[in-house]
Design a protein that fits this description.
The structure is a single chain. The protein has helices spanning about 10-45, 50-95, 100-105, 110-135, 135-150, 155-175, 180-200, 200-205, 210-235, 240-260, 270-310, 370-380, 400-405, 425, 435-445, 450-455, 470-485, 500-510, 530, 550-555, 560-570, 570-580, and strands spanning about 330-340, 350-355, 360-365, 385-390, 395, 410, 420, 460-465, 490-495, 520-525, 535-540, 545-550. The protein folds into three domains: about 1-310, ABC transporter type 1, transmembrane domain (ABC transporter transmembrane region fold), CATH 1.20.1560.10; about 330-410 and about 490-580, Rossmann fold (3-Layer(aba) Sandwich); about 415-485, 3-Layer(aba) Sandwich (Rossmann fold), CATH 3.40.50. The chain has a six-stranded mixed sheet with strand order 6-9-10-3-11-12, sandwiched between helices. Strands 2-1-4-5 form a four-stranded antiparallel sheet, with helices on one face. It is about 60% helix and about 10% strand. It has 22 helices and twelve strands. By secondary structure, it is an alpha/beta fold.
C-alpha cells in the first residue's frame, strides 16, 4: 500500500498543516488533566479560589484550542483523503485506457470496475484514518504515558497491563480475519461479473427461459459472500466487548489502587483524577490504532489489486512522436504479417501480404474463425503483429504516435457502440469540432438522417448508455456516421453492414463512394453482395490468404470463394455468377 502514497505528494502542504494541527490538539488536550489535578490539589482542597479561576480559564482556552485544531485536522484529513482517492481512480482509469485488447483479456471487466471503485474506497478509508489518527494516536499514547507516569508513578503498571491485553486481542483478531479479505474481494468481483453479465444478456436469458438457472448461479456466489461477511463481522464484533472489558478493568484498577492511596494522602485525589484521564487517553489511542491495524490487511489486498493494474506494461507501445514523414497518399500495406495470441499453439494469421490503396476498396471474406476481424484489429494496433511489417501511408505502423495513427483511422466495429449523450454528440465523437452541417451530411450518407429526424429532439435526441434505446441497425448507422464525420484517411468497416437490410446496404455503399474517393477502405463482410464491387477481395481460410483479386477473378480461380458464394445464392443465381465470370 505504501507504493500508492505517491499520490499524496501534491498535497504535502495540507498534510503539513494537518500534522501541526494534530500536534496542537494533542498538546492542548494533554494539558487539561494536569490543570484539573492542580485545581483539585492546590485550589479546591486548600480552598484557594484564585487558583481555581486562573487554571479554569486556562483550561477553557486550551479546550477551545483543542477543538479548533481538531476541526482543522479532521477537515484536512477528509479533504486529502478525498483528493487521494480521486487521483487514484483517475490513474487507474487512465491506465485502463492504455490497454489494448490483449491487455484487457488478462482482467475481467467486472474486476476492473471493482478495482476502480470498491478497492479505491477501501484504500481511501485507511488513508483518511491514517491521516487523522496515525500521528495523533501514537502522540497520545507516548505523551499520555509519560505524563501518567509523572503524575502517579505508583500506578503506571496498570497501563502496561491494559496495553498488553489490547495488543494480544488485536493480534488474535487480525490473524483470524486477515486471510479472508483477499477472498472477500474476489467474491465482490464475481458478484459484479454475474450482475453485469445478466444485465447485458437479459434478452437471451428470457428468450431461453433460464432466469432460474441464473438466479441459482448468482445465489451461490451471493450466499458465499454473505457467509464470509457474517464470519468477518462476527470476529470483528468480538473486539468491542474485549476492549470494553479491558477498558473497564483498567478503570476499575485505577479506582481501586487510587482510593487505597487516598487513605494515605487525601491530596492524592488530583493526581488520581489526572492519571485516570491519561489512562483513558492511552487506552482510547490504542483502541483507535487497533481499529486501524485491523483495517490495514483488507486495504492492503485492495492496494495490491490496484497496483497490479497500475504496473501493467501494455503489450503495445507507442512512440511519443511520430518518426519519419508519412506519404501524402493514403495506403495500408501488409508484408508477410503473422499473428498468434500469447502462449497459443497455432497462428491466427500466417504470412499475410497485400496493399490497399487510396480510392480503392479492399474487402476481406472467409469462414468464421478465418482471422478477418483479427487482421482488421492489427491496423489500429489493438493487437501487435507477431512478425512481418504493417505500413500506413508508407510508414511502419510502429513509428506512429498513438494520436497520429488514430487520427488516420475511422473504425466502425462489428457491434455498434454508442455512448450516453445525444445523437449529435455520438456522431461528433471522433470530430468534436464538426459543424452541424457536417454532422447532418454524415448522417445522410450513413442512411441515418430519416430515423434521426423522427426522434424526439432530432439530432439532440437522448441516446442511452450503450445505445439501448435505438435498434441494432440504427446503432450501426450512427457508428458509420461517426466514422464518416471524422473524415479519416483509412475507413475500417469490421462487418459493419451486417445489421443492415440489403436495400439500405446498397444505398449506403452508393452514397459512400464519393466520400471515400481519396481514402483507403477496408471492409470485413460475411455477405458477398456487400463486397462484390470491391477493387480487391482477399479470401482468408484458417488464417491463411488463399485468394486475392476481384469478384470475377476469384470466382474463376479460388475454390474457397466459390464455396462461399454458392452457400449464399440459389443454384440458378450461382450459375449466372459463374457464367458472368467466365
Amino acid at each position: 500500500m505504501f507504493k500508492l502514497f505517491r499520490y499524496l505528494k501534491p498535497y504535502w502542504w495540507q498534510v503539513l498543516i494537518l500534522v501541526i494541527a494534530t500536534g496542537g490538539q494533542v498538546y492542548a488536550t494533554l494539558q487539561l488533566p494536569a490543570l484539573m489535578a492542580d485545581i483539585i490539589n492546590n485550589g479546591i482542597v486548600p480552598g484557594q479560589m484564585d487558583t481555581v479561576w486562573k487554571d479554569g480559564l486556562f483550561m477553557l482556552g486550551l479546550a477551545l484550542l483543542s477543538a479548533v485544531t481538531a476541526f482543522i485536522a479532521s477537515y484536512f484529513s477528509a479533504k486529502v483523503g478525498a483528493y487521494f482517492s480521486r487521483d487514484l481512480r483517475a490513474a487507474v482509469f487512465r491506465k485502463v485506457l492504455t490497454f489494448n485488447l490483449a491487455d484487457i483479456k488478462d482482467y475481467s471487466t467486472a474486476s476492473l470496475i471493482t478495482r476502480t471503485t470498491n478497492d479505491v474506497n477501501q484504500v481511501q478509508m485507511v488513508v483518511t484514518m491514517m491521516l487523522s489518527m496515525l500521528l495523533r494516536a501514537p502522540l497520545f499514547c507516548v505523551l499520555g504515558l509519560v505524563m501518567a507516569v509523572q503524575t502517579a508513578p505508583e500506578m503506571s503498571w496498570i497501563i502496561v497491563v491494559g496495553i498488553t491485553a489490547v495488543v494480544i486481542s488485536v493480534v488474535i483478531i487480525m490473524a483470524i480475519v486477515g486471510p479472508k479479505f483477499k477472498i472477500f474481494q474476489k467474491l465482490i468481483d464475481r458478484v459484479t461479473l454475474i450482475t453485469r453479465e445478466n444485465l447485458t444478456g437479459l434478452k437471451v436469458i428470457r428468450a431461453f427461459n433460464n432466469e432460474k438457472i441464473e438466479q441459482k448461479k448468482f445465489s451461490r456466489t451471493n450466499e458465499e459472500l454473505t457467509r464470509l461477511m457474517i464470519f468477518v463481522d462476527r470476529v470483528l464484533e468480538l473486539q468491542n466487548p474485549l476492549i470494553n472489558i479491558i477498558f473497564n478493568g483498567t478503570t476499575l484498577l485505577c479506582s481501586w489502587i487510587g482510593i487505597s492511596l487516598l487513605n494515605q494522602d487525601f491530596a492524592y485525589l488530583g493526581n488520581m483524577t489526572a492519571f485516570s484521564e491519561y489512562v483513558t487517553f492511552v487506552m482510547m489511542s490504542f483502541l483507535m490504532l487497533s481499529l486501524f491495524f485491523i483495517m490495514i490487511p483488507r486495504a492492503n489486498v485492495s492496494a495490491g489489486r490496484i497496483n497490479e493494474v497500475l504496473k501493467v506494461n501494455p503489450k503495445v507501445h507507442f512512440v511519443k512522436k511520430t518518426r519519419g514523414v508519412p506519404e501524402k497518399k493514403a495506403s495500408v500495406e501488409f508484408s508477410k504479417v503473422s499473428f498468434a495470441y500469447p502462449d497459443a499453439a497455432e497462428k491466427v494469421l500466417d504470412d499475410i501480404s497485400f496493399k490497399a490503396e487510396a480510392g480503392k476498396t479492399t474487402a476481406f471474406i472467409g469462414s468464421t474463425g478465418s482471422g478477418k476481424s483479427t487482421l482488421i484489429n492489427l491496423v489500429p494496433r489493438f493487437y501487435e503483429a507477431t512478425s512481418g511489417e504493417i505500413l500506413i501511408d508508407g510508414l511502419n505502423i510502429r513509428d506512429y504516435s498513438q494520436d497520429d495513427l488514430m487520427a488516420r483511422i475511422g473504425l466502425v466495429p462489428q457491434r455498434g457502440v454508442l455512448f450516453a449523450g445525444t445523437v449529435k454528440s455520438n456522431i461528433k465523437f471522433g470530430a468534436p469540432n464538426a459543424t452541424d452541417e457536417q454532422v447532418q451530411k454524415a448522417a445522410e450518407v450513413a442512411q441515418a438522417a430519416k430515423f434521426i429526424e423522427k426522434l424526439p429532439g432530432g439530432y439532440d435526441a437522448h441516446i442511452a448508455q450503450g445505445g439501448t434505446n435505438v435498434s441494432g441497425g440504427q446503432r450501426q448507422r450512427l457508428s458509420i456516421a461517426r466514422a464518416i464525420c471524422k473524415k479519416p484517411d483509412i475507413f475500417v468497416f469490421d462487418d459493419a453492414f451486417s445489421a443492415l437490410d440489403m436495400k439500405t446496404d446498397a444505398k449506403l455503399r452508393a452514397a459512400l463512394k464519393p466520400i471515400v474517393e481519396d481514402a483507403v477502405v477496408l471492409i470485413v463482410a460475411q455477405r458477398v453482395s456487400t463486397i462484390k464491387d470491391a477493387d480487391q477481395i482477399i479470401v482468408l481460410d484458417k488464417g491463411k490468404m488463399v485468394g486475392k483479386g476481384t469478384h470475377k477473378e476469384l470466382l474463376r480461380a479460388c475454390k474457397v470463394y466459390q464455396s462461399i458464394v454458392k452457400s449464399q445464392l440459389s443454384d440458378e443465381e450461382y450459375r449466372k455468377e459463374m457464367n458472368g465470370a467466365a
